[in-house]
Amino acid sequence: MSLIRSTLHMLWMGITVIPYTLAVLLMRWLGGSPRRVYAVARAWLKLSVDSARLIMGVRYQIQGMDNLPTDPQQGVVLLVKHQSTYETFLMPAIMPRPLAYVFKKELLRVPFFGWSIGSLDMIHIDRAHGSRAFHKVVEQGKRLLAQGTWVIMFPEGTRVERGQKGEYKTGATRLAIMTGVPVVPVAVTSAKCWPRKAFIKRPGLVDVSIGKPISTQGRKHDELMAEVEAWIESEMKRLDPEAYPG
Q1: What is the DSSP letter of 199?
Q2: What is the predicted pLDDT for the residue at 220?
Q3: What confidence score (pLDDT) does residue 148 get?
Q4: N or C: which end of the chain has fewer CB within 10 A?
Q5: What is the pTM of this model?
Q6: Rg of the chain taking only CA atoms, in angstroms
Q7: Beta 183-188 vs 204-210: how paired, if at all?
Q8: CB neighbours (10 Å) of residue 70?
């Protein structure tokens, strides 16, 4: 049954991404504002999350929404645990501000989905360029944060298996310190239902826990990331104790 449900959901996303992408491209061509274009893309992401609940039984619950800043001018760098594709769809669907992902340029080649995100005001980088790529992140990140868009990054860089921990890289905390905005850690137990690189998803509940903003004033990027890592990994163990025996 899980195979059938997963197949149906994949087909549903494949069908619906086409008209939404065409709408994004058309609005961009007609000179639509970035906020309006983002709203169309967000609607498809929310549709994907809602359909995951209806078709596959993948549900979510959120703790800590009241930790998010309410000032529309307050920039934030969100640092999110990355276990599957699910949270890349979920975060824009639940966050009260437009989000800008920092993502590798290879995603731009994915038909329809890549064309959509390439049309949005986000930050795509070539990881092979090293310092030049980070300079682009800082330059565009400053602009986006100044206009009230929140930057979202996965500090581990790639999806990790349930119960595992990747290497937390400091690019996100460097950006936050250089722009003077707080970081907000987010723990997500998506791999309980939507495992890394798995086609078959299982019904169940994904927990999302949003931590309190951490000030970057006077902080060093490595010790700030260590604090973020400690909070996220501790929260993951609390939310999904089965994945962390002992």
Answers
A1: S
A2: 95
A3: 87
A4: C
A5: 0.92
A6: 18
A7: antiparallel
A8: 7
How far is residue 109 from each of residues 14, 31, 54, 82, 219, measured CA to CA in Å?
Answer: 16, 23, 29, 22, 38
Residues 38-52, buried b or exposed e (16+ Cβ, 10 A)? Answer: bebbbbbbebbbebb
Residue 192: predicted pLDDT:
95
d(CA 175, CA 168): 14
Per-residue CA distances from 43 to 21, 22, 24, 60, 177 (Å): 11, 13, 11, 17, 32
Can you tell me whether residue 214 is helix, strand or coil?
strand
Q: Point out the residues of the chain with pLDDT beneath 70.
A: 126-131, 246
| pLDDT at residue 35, rounded to an integer | 87
- What pLDDT is attached to residue 122? 77
84: which 2 tokens? 């599957």
Question: Alpha-carbon distance 49 to 142, whole Å?
Answer: 30
CB-CB neighbours of 76 under 10 Å: 23
Token match 């893309």: residue?
41
Rounded CA separation 90/78 (Å): 13
DSSP letter assigned to residue 191: G
Please name every residue paired with 62 in a beta bridge, in sequence order, or none if there are none. Answer: 208
Number of Cβ atoms within 10 Å of the Cβ of 211: 18
Which of 119, 89, 101 shows the shortest CA–CA distance to 157? 101
Report the alpha-carbon distance of residue 194 to residue 100 in Å, rounded. Answer: 23
| Residue 128: predicted pLDDT | 63
